[in-house]
Amino acid sequence: PRALSRSLKNRALQAVLVLLVYLVGSGFFVARERAQLDAAVREIEALTRHEKVLAVAFAAVSAAVTDATEAGHASPNEPASTEGMRPYVESCTRTLEQLEAIDAIYARPKHAMLRSWDTLVATPTRAHWLDLREVLDGLAGDFEARLRAVGERRESMSTAYRREYDQITWRTLALAAIGMLGFAAAAAWFSR
Questions:
Q1: What span, in angstroms and rounded, lies between the C-alpha atoms of 111 and 98?
Q2: Which pLDDT does position 12 carry in this prediction?
Q3: How far apart are CA 56 and CA 77, in angstroms?
Q4: Residues with Cβ < 8 Å from 76, sequence gap 6 or more?
Q5: Distance spanning both ends of the chain, measured CA to CA
Q6: At CA 150, angle to CA 163 and CA 53, rounded to 5?
Q7: What three-state secondary structure class fits 176?
Q8: What single DSSP character describes residue 104?
Q9: Among 47, 46, 41, which Cα is nearest to 151's?
Q10: pTM for the structure as a whole
Q11: Do residues 58 and 144 make contact, with C-beta atoms less than 8 angstroms apart?
């Protein structure tokens, strides 16, 4: 009886150790999978923020293009005042600064716009109005293309995230089933 008691204690200890190894392994597996999903979510959120700021910038620049076009077509003898354009330029500058915080690549177009604006303010001629319109029109085209590219990248990342989430769900369910079968086998071995 004493040997049987020792044998039962050894079997129980082994079963508990197997369960502990399974739980620790499962914990590491879940932590690794969760880290991958968290990284994907952070990237999707960053792309969404970028897309929103780009959409605002595109709208601001498009509105400024319209006003710059109208001002550029004013009478050559009496050029349009720059005061009506100032709020548009300030709005575009703010959104370009937000974009620059996301990616430094936006610094160059901001400086080009401000350089053109400063030239126009110093000498409000029709040629300078047209130059500002060209700069803004180029920005609008660039923002539209970038907006489309960022949106496509976000969609692609979202699709990949959903696919990875489904795969992780199935792997986790399989791991749980294997763990239950393993524990059932250990319990059967323990009770024999």
A1: 14
A2: 74
A3: 35
A4: 126
A5: 15
A6: 125
A7: helix
A8: G
A9: 47
A10: 0.73
A11: yes
**Per-residue pLDDT reduced to its tens digit, 49-90:** 999 999 999 999 999 998 888 887 766 666 678 888 899 999
71 burial (CB, 10 Å; 0-12 / 13-18 / 19+) is buried
Give the number of other CB atoms < 10 A from CB of residue 96.
24
Radius of gyration of the chain (CA): 32
> Are the CB atoms for 183 and 8 separated by under 8 Å?
no
For 89-128, write each residue's pLDDT tens digit: 999 999 999 999 999 999 999 999 999 999 999 988 888 9
**Spatial CA neighbour of 133 closest among 78, 74, 77:** 74
CA angle 18, 20, 23 (to 5 degrees): 110
Q: What's the CA gap between 172 and 175, in Å, rounded?
A: 5
